[in-house]
Amino acid sequence: MKAVIQLKDTLSKELAEDLKKAKSVILFEYLGLNARELTNLRRKLHDANAKMYVQKNNIFIRALSLAKIDGFTNVTGPNALLVAFGDEILPFKELHEIIKTHKFVKYKNGVLESNIIPADQLASLAAIPGREGLLSMLLSCLQASIRNLAYGIKAVGEHKQ
Q1: Strand 115-118 vs strand 79-84: parallel, antiparallel, or unpaired?
Q2: pLDDT along the chain (161 residues), means of 10
């Protein structure tokens, strides 16, 4: 019995260390996904520098408490915890693709930059473009005024001839 308690304590401490390093965290209900779909999701998350944990809820609650993350209220049922270390939004997108095809997979809660995000707002976060997309949009906005000035000068030059 003590070995089981020690194992649970070790697992929750290891998970708490990952939660402290994480840029974003998502708790979701995964019931109904088969092994192939879970493996594909894990591979995509690994490519996005994120991990998915499937543990008992008691271990999740202990780890969240050790990592000083409060506000996760709905930690019941079969849950998985997605922990992102790189891009904060990319794992949201990968999980959202699964949620769009499987209606039984549901968001529960999330954390982004130490802010608790309720389940209804997690889907809107998945719609945000990734870091590269946002930088591309910014660059396009910065170049737009110079490009429009060049087009205006060109139009005036053609009109004067």
Answers
A1: unpaired
A2: 86 88 87 86 86 88 86 81 84 83 84 81 76 83 86 85 71
